Amino acid sequence: MNILALEPYYGGSHKQFLDALAGHSRHDWSLTTLPAYKWKWRMRHSALTLAEETNSINSIGEKIDLIFCSDMLNLAEYKGLLSPELFDIPTVLYFHENQLTYPMRYEKERDLYFGMVNYISALAADTVMFNSHFHMTSFYEALQEFLKKMPDYQDLEKVETAKDKSAVFYPGIENEALQAKERNKIPTILWSARWEHDKNPEMFFEMLYQLQNDGIEFKLNIIGQSFENSPTVFAEAKEKLSDRINRYGFLQNKDDYLHSLRESDILISTANHEFYGISILEAVKEGVCPLLPNRLSYPELFDYAANRDNYFYENSPDSLLAATKRLLEKYNDTSKWNKTISNLKSVSEQFLWKNLIDQYDASFEQTASKKFVKNL
Description:
376 residues, alpha/beta, Rossmann fold, 6-stranded parallel sheet, 15 helices
């Protein structure tokens, strides 16, 4: 089957996901992409730009059995701009994020036009994929509340139309096994999230300051992408925790990134927002033990009911501090720690691309035949 992939924002996690999906799939893929630049402009113009490119592909006789796109594309506008003979090609829409529940530092800054683009695109697609149950549920709940505020023509039943063709397809991770790593004499705590307010770095560093005040030994790897307006707490922490920091700053090179994961022992998330959590799973695959808040996508990814006492804390600074201390104590017991890391292997293995790709390919085939299957 020939799949045409459209990505208006081909960079970062969008690029990583699409390259891996196309590379692992048994189908033949062609990628038509635009650089990851000015996301609002991409959402406004990409339908026209990518429709023109699709029409050009069609004009030279290349066969297209299925169109796959991300949430950055206004799919309804795109389909309306295609040549008539392309109207009936089935489409799959993949939600990495959405613009109704994506966090804004100030809610008044949210442009609801882009949330409507997401909604109408979902209605226009034949199959809608989300990267987690948390994401899918929160989007449709927010959509219902958003539409109820409209003065008329709310058409709430159309939300059910979109939901009925929606399903969860987790992004995969690479590599097939945990790689050997040397045990650190002093446990190393990892931060690998974006340096932004929605990741709640203030809570993370306040906990570290308390550990330091309590005389507890630890080292730090503070990595992740930073921005011009990144929270000042990172610069402050660099000074206050300077003697404990091994790595600090964004790592452009993939090998350096993986090496920093293997140097780490405990990854702590304080995120207030996360649609999926690929960096958490990448760290777990490299033998890093996660400590996660009981919210967002984490409970579904790490089975909260079974692992409440292993990988979770209960969403408060006191709970985070206590849970971190418990993990640091466990690290000092080699047998207990080795058992903890061994248990994580089965968690990471279920998210390997080799174990997920057949579900994707089967869904693509079902969509191409216009027979959507909600639960594969």
